[in-house]
Structures are given as structure tokens and as C-alpha cells.
Amino acid sequence: MSSTLQHELHRKFAFSSPSVEASLSIMRTAALIEWQITKNLLPHNLTHSQYSLLRILREESDKGLQCGEISQRLINMTPDVTRLLDRLEKRGLIKRQRDFNDRRIVVAKITQKAIDLLAELDLPIDQMHISVFKDMSSDNVKAFIESLSNIRERLINLSHPITH
């Protein structure tokens, strides 16, 4: 019997293991969620990375963040945060300023224009997220979150093995 993912991907052969299928299923699901978010962002000429960056800056609207701090908070690892900031600055969605005490430090801050844009996007994107899990109980969603957290922790440990 073929799996749903196997059918979706038009695979002729079964996956080599349930673990491979589970990993690919997570990636496929994440891609579909990202596509749903992207559909909401397209009319506003925003990418998912730009949207995520703006949401991060909104949380720190009082003080702003340095480029490295933004990189650490992004969901998707983005190699060139500076380029994202350049594009957002050209659109008037962020502003950058040098630290008065250390001119080497540049802090990015969100503008009111971006805060207004995010306010417009909050509800439709939140509703999309809610609709994805609408048939699951709160306890099942919490258990799912815990399972994903455990998987991420193992992946992080694989990336940064402890050496003695």
C-alpha cells in the first residue's frame, strides 16, 4: 500500500524507511505552508524572508537589532540578511542607523509603514495557520509541537557535535 506522500510525489517505489518518509513529509508540509503564506504576501510584494524579518523587527521596535541578531532569529537560514535589509530600506519599511558609541555597529529598526503593513497581514496569515490545525485538539497540537521540537534538537546536535 502506498503512502499519501508517495502518491502526492508520484513515486513509483516506497521510501527506503519510515524515517525517510517522515523527514520528506515534514519538508513537503513546510513547503505547502510556506506557499500559503507566500500567496498572502505576493500582493504586497514581500518575500517570506522579508516578512519574517519585519516581524522580528516589530518585536524589537523600541531598540532595533543588528544584522547578526536578525540572522539568529530567522526561521529559514538566510545567508545574506544585508541584502534583505537593503531591499526593505529602499521601500521605506526599515531604517538603519549607526550606533553613536561604536560606528561599526549598524542597527535596523522597523518603520511605521512596515508596522501598518504587518497589521494588515496578521489576520489572514494567522487564520491560515489556524485552519491548518483546525481538526486537531489542543493537546494533539501541543504533542505535535513537542515532537517537532525534539526533532529540531536532534538536528541541531548533529550540526554541532559536542567534542571532548
Structural features, described:
The chain is mainly alpha-helical and 164 residues long. The protein has helices spanning 4-8, 18-41, 48-59, 67-73, 81-90, 112-132, 138-159, and strands at residues 65-66, 94-98, 106-110. It has seven helices and three strands. The protein has a three-stranded antiparallel β-sheet with strand order 1-3-2. Strand 2 (94-98) and strand 3 (106-110) form a beta hairpin.
Name a few traits of the molecule.
164 residues; mainly alpha; Arc Repressor Mutant, subunit A; three-stranded antiparallel sheet; 3 strands; globular
CATH secondary-structure class of one domain: Mainly Alpha
Q: CATH superfamily of one domain, please?
A: Winged helix-like DNA-binding domain superfamily/Winged helix DNA-binding domain
Main sheet attributes: strand count, strand direction, barrel closure: 3 strands, antiparallel
| Share of residues in strands | 5-15%
* Global geometry: globular
Averaged pLDDT = 91
Q: Which blocks of ≥5 consecutive residues have pLDDT under 50?
A: none
Number of strands: 3
And the CATH topology of one domain? Answer: Arc Repressor Mutant, subunit A
Strand order of the largest sheet: 1-3-2
Q: Could you say which structural class the secondary elements and strand pairing correspond to? A: mainly alpha
Give me the strand/helix succession.
HHHEHHEEHH
Radius of gyration: 19 Å
What is the correct CATH architecture of one domain? Orthogonal Bundle
Count of individual helical segments: 7
For the termini, the CA-CA separation is 46 Å
Q: Helix amount, in percent?
A: 55-70%
